[in-house]
């Protein structure tokens, strides 16, 4: 999974990848989608208003692509990574709600007390709150979590990538009818 466009390159725009049955599978960069298109692995269903240019070709920037060959992919799991945790928690400290400064990951139940690296035990925290909480539980530190951590559903995870430019994604992510 990738997060929304970080730098100014249009090649880093998010692209929704659908299986041949139109079920959402992944999100990749426009760069990756263009490579898949030229390798005849996908068809472009929707495009952004921007175009990419080479000396001999102009191509609309893909927004939604569909695989040409079916991939057996029943997993609805979102992989536990730092980036995916930050996306789940909206890049916001789950204790003081700030989005400023460097953010860390905090174990709700500290590791030294049996807490592991799991969706339901990790939250995004600013350094100040993480230090204040230390190796205590939020209750012991008298700190309240914005929301209890839980494992995200892949469809809900994909829905977080929808912004003004990704309106065409909505029907494929069960947010409105076709």
Q: Would you kindly provide a written description of the structure presented here, covering whatever features stand out?
A:
- The protein folds into 2 domains: 10-74 and 154-173, no CATH class; 82-133, DNA Binding (I), subunit A (Orthogonal Bundle).
- The chain starts with 13 loop residues before the first strand and ends in a 19-residue tail after the last helix.
- The radius of gyration is 19 Å and the shape is elongated.
- The chain is of the alpha+beta class and 178 residues long.
- It has helices at 30-38, 82-88, 127-133, 154-159, and strands at 14-18, 24-29, 42-53, 58-67, 103-107, 122-126.
- Helices cover 16% and strands 24% of the residues.
- The strands form 2 sheets. It has a 4-stranded mixed sheet, covered by helices on one side. It has a two-stranded antiparallel sheet with strand order 5-6.
- The protein is built from 4 helices and 6 strands, in the order ββαββαββαα.
Brief description of this entry?
It contains 4 helices and 6 strands. The protein has helices at residues 30-38, 82-88, 127-133, 154-159; strands at 14-18, 24-29, 42-53, 58-67, 103-107, 122-126.
Strand order of the largest sheet: 2-1-4-3
Judged by helices, strands and strand pairing, the structural class is alpha+beta
Give the averaged pLDDT, no decimals. 90
Rough outline: elongated
Number of strands: 6
The run of helices and strands is EEHEEHEEHH
Number of helices: 4
Taking pLDDT < 50 over at least 5 consecutive residues as the criterion, the unreliable ranges are 1-6
Query: Tell me about the biggest sheet?
Result: 4 strands, mixed
Total domain modules: 2
Radius of gyration: 19 Å
Gap from first CA to last CA? 25 Å
Helix content: 10-25%
Into which percentage range does the β-strand content fall? 15-25%
